Amino acid sequence: MPDATADKSDATTRFVYVASAISALGGLLFGYSGVISGAILFIKEDFKLTVVEEEVVVAAVLIGALFGSAAGGKLADRFGRRKVLIVSAAIFAIGSIASSEAPNMYFLIAGRIVLGSAIGAASFIAPLYISEISPGTHRGRLVSINQIGLTGGILISYVVAYALSGIHGWRWMFRLGVVPALALFSGMLFMPESPRWLLLHGFRDKARAILKEILDKKEAEEEFQEIQKSTGFQANSWADLFSPRIRPALVLGIGLAVFQQVTGINTIIYYAPTILEFAGFKSDTQSILATVGVGVLNVVMTVIAMLLLDRVGRRPLLLAGLAGMALSLLFLGVAFDLPALSGVLAIVSALSLMIYVGSFAVGLGPVFWLLISEIYPLKVRGRAMSVATTANWGANLIVTLTFLSFIQMLGKPLTFWIYGLLGIGALLFAYFLVPETKGQSLEDIEAHWWAGKKAGEMGKNK
Ligand code: BGC
Fold first, then answer.
1. Is the CB of residue 336 less than 8 Å from the CB of residue 279?
2. 151 lines ligand 1 (CB under 6 A)
3. 298: Cβ below 6 Å to ligand 1?
4. Would you list the DSSP string of 256-298?
5. pLDDT tens digits along 122-169
6. Rounded (5°) CA angle 136-308-310
7. How would DSSP label each residue in 177-189?
8. Per-residue pLDDT tens for 168-219?
9. CA neighbor of 453 nearest in space, from 248, 192, 255
10. Is 80 left (phi over 0), alpha (psi -120 to 50) or beta?
11. Ligand 1 pocket check for 365: Cβ under 6 Å
């Protein structure tokens, strides 16, 4: 595809960026759910929670997200990406208010399941929507705006939790979730539906008009024809997802989804202070600094990834990031295995933690969500992303529920070595199976699978 922005007005480019930024508020909702790590300290006092009850309150969002991600794909394929995003924003707002007003633990759990279902759906429909409205040459950059929303949301949640901790303000921590939800809701009301979904459902004129907003006239017409070709491909039902030609893409999405979580990102992000405490950083100030530091680094490195994805490609960033993650996890394990070096230990573990988060943010973090928004056939794109996303939330839940028990049962070094070994597994998986999608149109990618070609051949001989 030629450089889609070369002879277009600034206004058009702005349109795609604005639409991407608005839908990326879906990512922000996802990230803001991290506010629970601050809120739970007060909730457990107010509701006198046992450890198990505390875990259930925290995990309720993940359980809701499993439902939301499983159901969201079929809905997005049937009713459109935009509508489902709008409804998810409304459900998020309702869930936030319900959680904030909870009179008891059961009500709170129910509110958080509702909230989670919205996050589960928005977590993949936002990147899906952006991917489908983006010109191929800028898709990497635009889709990763969603990951910036996500990492920004995590950072905001840290700051809000910290700011409200003085007034025991857990109810306000939840209430504030309504702000980004309303912004997403009202912003999306003014955004168009994805032109690809429109064309697939026979809204030809509307699809054409939106493509003309994104591309110049000639390219819009070419793209229109290309998308129309895709609508003729067979995949239509769940069964087609497992057909031999599409199966590699399915395996790829599920594999990356699971690796993204089992290499421990959310334990590191949410337990950073605990991990550093193990290493000898004890004061509250140090632990707050560490948490905010991790949050800022996560955002900054995601911005760098965003700038690089359409230049150097997805594969180099993913592979370099995975190598950095595996190495830093192994170092973290070694550091914990050498208690004699306690002063050095603190520094080595703080550095490993930073390298780990930076490597995730430049690679597997954004690249997973980007790839699953690119590699599936149009007709089943929502459902296929739904499968990968549900696998991601499922693995997230398992890791969340097992991390502290692993530390207790196996010890710190072994726990981090296991994550590190899984990181090496992820590196090999990515090296052999991940295609380079940089600069390809979604239709080229789809045609590649239907032609029965291997992932490794993608983007070559063009
Ligand atoms: C992951 C989340 C994680 C976040 C951290 C995302 O790509 O899916 O589980 O919390 O990155 O930045």
1. yes
2. yes
3. yes
4. HHHHHHHTTHHHHHHHHHHHHHHTT--SHHHHHHHHHHHHHHH
5. 999 999 999 999 988 899 999 999 999 999 999 999 999 889 988 889
6. 15
7. THHHHHHHHHHHH
8. 899 999 999 999 999 999 999 999 999 999 998 999 999 999 988 888 888 8
9. 248
10. left
11. yes
